[in-house]
Amino acid sequence: MSRHKNVRTMNLADELDDYDGDYYEDGESEGISPEDKAKIADGLRRVREVIGDDIPLITDDKIEETLWYYYFDIERSITYLLNQAGMTATKKQKKTVAVDSKAPSQKAAAKAQQGFEGPSPDDVVIAAQSQSKGLGKGQKAEKAPRAATTSIQKGVENLKLTEPPEKTAPKIPKKKIDVVAEYEKLKSKRKENANLIVIGHVDAGKSTLMGRLLYDAGVVDERTIQKYKQEAEKIGKSSFALAWVLDQTGEERARGVTIDIAVNAFETEKGRFTILDAPGHRDFIPNMIAGAAQADFAVLVIDSSPGEFEAGFNIRGQTKEHALLVRSIGVQRIIVAVNKLDLMKWSQDRFDEIKQQLSQFLATAGFQSKNVSFIPCSGLTGDNIVRGPEAGLIPWYTGPTLIQELETAKPVAKAVEKPLRMTITDVYRGGVTNPVTISGRIEIGNVQVGDIIVAAPGEERAQVKGIEVDNEATDWAVAGNNVQLHLTGIDMDHLKIGDVVCHADNPLVPLKEFEAKILAFESLTPMVIDIHRGRLNASGRITKLIATLDKGNGTVTKKKPRHIAPGSLAVISISVTGVPLPLEKGSKIVLRADGLTVAAGVLA
Ligand SMILES: Nc1nc2c(ncn2[C@@H]2O[C@H](COP(=O)(O)OP(=O)(O)OP(=O)(O)O)[C@@H](O)[C@H]2O)c(=O)[nH]1
Fold this sequence. Notes:
Rossmann fold; Elongation Factor Tu (Ef-tu), domain 3; P-loop_NTPase; globular; alpha+beta; Elongation factor 1 alpha-like protein; binds guanosine-5'-triphosphate; six-stranded antiparallel β-barrel; hydrolase; GTP-binding; protein biosynthesis; 18 helices
């Protein structure tokens, strides 16, 4: 099994037949290190903690193979294994939520008519000033799965052969499709997909709220919740059972915090939603940035209980930092879930106090008031999330439930006719018929089966052999779709998480130096910084402070300032320390230094 084993003379069938499932028996002769053995054993335990023992298709052997293949990455292994067993959330998402959409409030109905699309003329934040073009890359140390040269990896390939044949045999059309015309024809008939990022201070109740949403929406069944409740009780964390719907890894559960972006999806009569649940803890802000880059709108969760709103809202709290971040990377629409109101006896005074303070702040952060709404709710009790509040509980409130409000929040129109840009969020081996698969969200442009693509900064070409949108095979996809692309003609080593997929005849040219228009959160001088764009994370340096700008009209207020004060809009020069990054005009970036987010904006 070891990657050091001499595989050149192996025969795949023999290997699979001979394999007895014990990787450790002659570990030394196979070259596996004691550390790797320990990691596999630990990984097996952690995977079992999450998925339990009762899925017959997921044997210990398969778990170990998968862990090895994914470099002991627990989360990706679990996702893969559940996929294999046909149990992913996305596969379960087909159910339509039984929302009583006939009964939205007048306010909600009016909002629904008016919509939230279109440019915002007086946006103070730079991201909104420029139509974003493609995005950048990656990244330091994201590993692609291991190359398939070992018996275990071959075993994994074999596992993947269980995929349904219709998904694995896409046909390459002979004639080019006019994707933009096809999309326009279908647009009004298709349910739009919206990605929503759930943000807020640590412990505000983000995961619980979304767990509740998925549960009440019918995506997660009663049995699963009961199982989570029992398991949570066993480790003395019974109140976390709903949060576990999203917090899938053993570490997240043991610590009671979200570490990486959890993804889940649900559908209502009016729309299809993909939830990105961002970690609140400040150590995990880079993960949150990765999610925000793909979001259409944000749900900001506030803990309304005494002292907690204030803690999240102070200078070191994540309420402000998250809201500023999502706004600076282009999110225009925000729904504030004033949560845990059950702990405040559903006090209108508390709701109004929070609403008043946050409205002021969100306006200064660049959110237009028509794009901000406040919903009183409790994720734990489920009041005003999918079902309305229990009779008489919130007599002072006549507005929409959270889900009704989500349905009115239409995603901003996407540039489907521009050159293709899609940041890779995952790379995996899809079996013999689909040797290499990448996934991500198309940010700009469109793609069709047969297209020749490159993944910048790489220059290796690949052909798109098949496309899946929301797990359904299709001939084409456009900006806004979450897709899987099955590729031929390229080795996995040439594809990395954070790379930007472009058509080979219109590639993005990676940059070593660039100028950006940014909003400063902290004081800036020429200094060392980390550059984040989606999952891309690389070190660099602010080399020049070019000018500060007026927030209202964007004119230069001062050339060559000595420093840039927090809250200022400015143009700066940045150089990249290592290899050039796949960034271009319009790419949204976040700058961090010493564990703090110091600025965010777009390439000028
Ligand atoms: N009373 C009450 N408690 C809640 C509510 N929502 C969440 N909680 C509790 O608050 C704690 C934190 O909830 P989580 O959902 O894990 O919070 P989170 O914001 O996802 O936390 P991070 O992902 O770590 O930032 C848990 O004990 C929940 O049971 C609510 O509406 N009412």
